[in-house]
Design brief:
Strand content of chain A: 25-35%
Oligomer: homodimer
Distance between the termini of chain A: 51 Å
Number of strands of chain A: 18
Mean pLDDT of chain A: 91
Radius of gyration of chain A: 26 Å
Strand order of the largest sheet of chain A: 2-1-3-8-7-6
Chain lengths: ~425, ~425
Amino acid sequence: VKAPRVELVCIGSELLAGKVNTHAAALGIKLADIGLSIAREHTVPDNRAVMRQTFAEALRRSDVVISAGGLGPTFDDVTRDVWSEVTRRPMTEDAALVADIRRKFISRGLQMAPANLRQAQVLRGARSIPNPNGTAPGQYLLLGRKTLILLPGPARELFPMFETFVLPRLRTRHRNLHSRLKTFLIAGVPESQVDQMIRPLVDKYRRVGGCTIVHGILASHSLITVKFRVEGSGRAAVDAVARRLAGEFRTVLKAIVVGEDEERMENIVGVMLARRKETVAVAESCTGGLVSRMITDRPGSSNYFLEGAVTYTNSAKTRRLGVRPALFTRHGAVSEEVARAMATGIRRSSRATYGLSITGIAGPGGGTREKPVGLVHIACAAPGKITSKRFTLKGDRSWIRQRSSVMALDLLRQAIVRRARP
Amino acid sequence: VKAPRVELVCIGSELLAGKVNTHAAALGIKLADIGLSIAREHTVPDNRAVMRQTFAEALRRSDVVISAGGLGPTFDDVTRDVWSEVTRRPMTEDAALVADIRRKFISRGLQMAPANLRQAQVLRGARSIPNPNGTAPGQYLLLGRKTLILLPGPARELFPMFETFVLPRLRTRHRNLHSRLKTFLIAGVPESQVDQMIRPLVDKYRRVGGCTIVHGILASHSLITVKFRVEGSGRAAVDAVARRLAGEFRTVLKAIVVGEDEERMENIVGVMLARRKETVAVAESCTGGLVSRMITDRPGSSNYFLEGAVTYTNSAKTRRLGVRPALFTRHGAVSEEVARAMATGIRRSSRATYGLSITGIAGPGGGTREKPVGLVHIACAAPGKITSKRFTLKGDRSWIRQRSSVMALDLLRQAIVRRARP
């Protein structure tokens, strides 16, 4: 069985001028569930000529083409029209869709604008894809062995439509394909060193027992992800190869792996806390709520996350966390002493198992010769033991905040591990 | 003057399988500063055949090609090799780069792996672009009238290199081009209604006084952005057209615009607070620190953001904010009463001008028939006046958290406006 080629075209000038496009990353994950992967992604502006060329090339090259965006009611939404030209399929107005769109407007107490009627235009032969979260329906069109899928741009409309309508149909159409992704998360080791450790396995295992293996390695915010994907036909065969390779990788990476099949440190920590029925509270300064937000991104985090304090001012650090004012005058707000006092303070007042703290200078202002932008202190108060760490990061405000949050979460992870294996 | 066509190719399998690619959005903003825009973006996996085809097409079609990623030391970094094939330029090892890479490893107390030597390979005729934040240098190659730019993938390496080395050179090469972007941020009105309001202006102004105008409209998280870009030669002419159009848009959108040239509500609020020397403190439940993080994303936010409390548990709401336990039993933690008590509590204890609060059910668990997932209460306590709002959102956890944070910030904005014009 040969895997079908999937190509994704995202439409929207804003995606090339400030708005981040998350579709490729997120659809890639969903498609992996049914053994497919995206071969190429393109982002094009709301420009008919560029859209026409890109659509035509994608449809010529690939088996499944997904277009995302440009189905709205406004003047710059022309995806339907361009696909109609490229596929030479005329469009007709679907009466049921008109009624449905009108109903949606009424239910929100709004009047339907004439422009919204364009959203009821369907390519000849296409099935309309219901959109529970918006007015723009999608379209699903089989062209011989090829599949063309039109979806709206907003993620909250696109993803439910993709999961409910598109994914089951693609699964049925390509049912003999299987794939298994395995990831190892690594902290505290440079990428080139990890590369050296796994290189023999990567070179050795490209094809095993009729399956293809694609390897990857990726560094991000002080974490390294090693991954491989096994692709082939027959679920049992694919699973067996994946298990065998995972065993070999595990042996090689044993000393440095912090988690498997999970790329986010906050989720690794969350699983550990939930399993041990332990809790955490967070006191943050320079990261302004980022650590709390990362921890609470995970559904169910209310079982182990008690509270967060974003103490930007010194007086808030004193009032909320009991940090003694003398520490500020003696050591400064960004110091090991204050970090430790913050961790102890939030742990005590919240009665959490662990108190995690972070104080630093995220920039661009506020740095001095002794305490430059990028200086960060983190601390973790555990029962009977406080650990802390100091580091200086080079990068912009957002990167310093991101990276120091991940490092704080790793400090918490180490504290949990230490307590679990005394 | 005809604007040069810029094309961006991002390389990395991870970008098609879970890692969000922010380069197109961010580089688009930087390029706009010198009057350029990205005509197309492609994301391709670490696969030589796909890379070869995409690179060749981009170089044939466009005047400036930027490739991002695949310059690392590991087995899957093959961008240099593929560009060497496509441009038919052999590579040579640059002795100065070898010394520089070795020096960087030594300064970090690490040994240089032999694989890192590949990073010192330079295409014939290319200039090497220094990388202060990593070991992979970039490359800048003029091919007749075309410019080819190779940059590493990590944003903290790519952007400083782009700003310091690439941008000034592109500016000089295309010095007659100018462009001016104008944006209006709108809250509380549906996209199709805004579209109807501006449609006459959009249809009327496509070309004015030798300049081209590109219009756009975009909805995101309960906010709508209307924008246009004026492009042409001669800064004075471009500026004059932009000013004139801005005036007409301003007249039409007057009643619903919340800010100009700023797409983020937290920054609009930040500017207002800083100008009025007022302060804010935030108490969050379901958003878990997101509102605090958004506010503190802005440099200088320490001038008006005093503190945040992420009170996930009822006991934290009582201890930190003084919410009376009777309110939980009588109304529940997600209620107008608790939202108002949280806002009042954080305002009082922090002594901020405004206390902003948010409590809700972000899901996927925790919903009931009376209080479903997506129910959110927000409140803002200002001197002498508390306002609150209740809404039910449909979407996943992340979307509910995002959207309700923006709505809370809009409530704060309204409170500031009301106080400023009594």
